[in-house]
Amino acid sequence: MQTDYPSWAEDLGHGIHAVDTGFHRDRFDAAYLMVQDGHAAFIDTGTNFAVPRLLGLLDALGLPRDAVTHVIPTHVHLDHAGGVGLLMRELPAATLWVHPRGARHMIDPSMLWQGALAVYGAEEMERSYGALVPVPAERVKTTSDHVVIELAGRPLVVADTPGHARHHHCLWDEETRGWFTGDTFGLSYREFDTARGAWIMPTSTPVQFEPELLRHSIERLLARDPACMYLTHFSRVRDVRRLGSLLLALLDGMVAIGRAAPSGPTRHEAMKDAMLALFGTSLAAHGCPIDSAGLRALLEMDIELNAQGMAIWLDRSLG
Ligand SMILES: [Zn+2]
Question: Does domain 1-98+101-142 have CATH number 2.60.40.420?
């Protein structure tokens, strides 16, 4: 059944479609569909609740479910990979490609669930993620650095990109000279677009944030001289050189905040306040007119997660 092209998807050209998964708020979390000569790949999936949209886009494009040959989460954080198992059940011809450090969590998601439970709590887990569906081991392939995944002859080159998480890889699409960056190239919300273009910030979500590795991974992505980046949060950005410089400067700012933060029970709030000030100052220089209450509302969740992830990194590097 062919349906109209949905309002929550965007055709980016060259067979690439961004799906707004609807997670958390509009224009927060994207999944991508790449179509090449009647074959298709999903890159990131969003959560279980995104699966109807992912399947709905296939319907709108007139693609049968067995046209999807690859599902490739950038890493196994649940806003990127929580829906993988449920989606794989609907796609009989698909192989799951995952970083070797993430594969076991897709085959048996119980540890992933427990880890996320510790960060988000039980109520939020039920409401935002739903039960995680395991993927049969025989449908899972692991990637390695420089491996090429082919979609009907179109190459997607894998780069191992630790720093945000050890289980993170990015994918290079030569045709558009773009990286599918997951969370490695940070977060860029469209609410912060101004006449100067997009704004971007790093994400240090628990529990594997390692700033030195993240800097190295970002520099590695930039070394390809990309024309664009396909971010999960949210969608495609261009002007990559400027955004890369901004991202690295803000990463340095976050590290400085972590190193300067008081130890003890006041550290968490102190880091959150300092990050809000850092990002607010950067956004003001970017010409963003949103006031501090508006910024707090848009960035609250990311700043909370960033502070938690920075604390784990600080405790590990001190201990
Ligand atoms: Zn992540």
Answer: no
